[in-house]
Amino acid sequence: MPVKVQRYIAILSVILFAAKMLAWWLTHSVTILTDALESIVNMVAGFLGLYSVILSARPRDTNHPYGHGKVEFISAGVEGTLIVIAGCVIILEAASHLMHPATLSHLNTGLIIVSAAGLVNYLAGSWAMRQGKAHHSLVLESAGAHLVTDAYSTLAVIIGVSVLMLTGNKWPWLDSVVALFFAAITIRTGYLVLRRSVSGMMDEMDLNTLKAIIDLLQKNRPPQWVDLHNLRVIRYGSLMHIDAHLTLPYYQQVADADREIHAMEDLIKTQFGDAVELFIHIDGCMPYQCHLCAMPDCKKRKSPLQSQIQWNTTNVWEDVKHGRIAAGE
After folding, report:
1. d(CA 301, CA 304)
2. For position 282, what pLDDT does the model report?
3. Is the CATH code 3.30.70.1350 the one for domain 205-329?
């Protein structure tokens, strides 16, 4: 599905770019030109995104044991860079026209073309964002966010051109002022896309996802899950990779541990889908953890249960067994 959606976005970007260039050719408006320049970015990003989605969908191999999903971060990074460059070009073009205003014409026709393109951008962008979130595709989410932002920027263009029409083009400098405002929005959008790309490549922690996983495990925690620590969550495209240390009663057999790992995996998949990969390290419980353990009728217990540790984003992230400090060891 992500490949199909991105293919539509790439084709649409070419059509909208042609339409906006036609509007600029008719009107000679720098504001409309800035909108068309960002469409060049949409076009390049659309085809680059299509390539990255196709590549990220490939199964893992010996050269890429974690799959190809991180190419989406590279694609998003290139897209963010192109958006920032487009914003800088817009500033230069607007500044030039501010000093040497051009004569505008056919504003009504250009306004109709740009308005139609803006509406299509908004609808396509909203759809792409929904599909990106549903399939955990950063490329689709970035492309959708870019298209929606482009639509809002187009709205600013429409307002600016409408004012020019209502004033009989008495203030031609207003065209450049609107373009400068548009450039600021464009550069901010590019920065946000680039920031998210770098975060993904650096494996920055997604606190919202981490909290959702911890809350799910805590809510459905059986008594034999004595402790959970060293939890890590990383995304590779649509794949969610989870590392953790799970503490079980030390006297359980290997088959018991295997069953608990699969139980945890099935639980997480109920909320996050099948694209989940768990690497669970099993620890046997220690005597100093007895006061945290809720196992009923445990014949190996050294001290009575006081209270279980409530898992949260702070204590589950730590690479240390819980209970040692509290027990004074």
Report:
1. 7
2. 95
3. yes
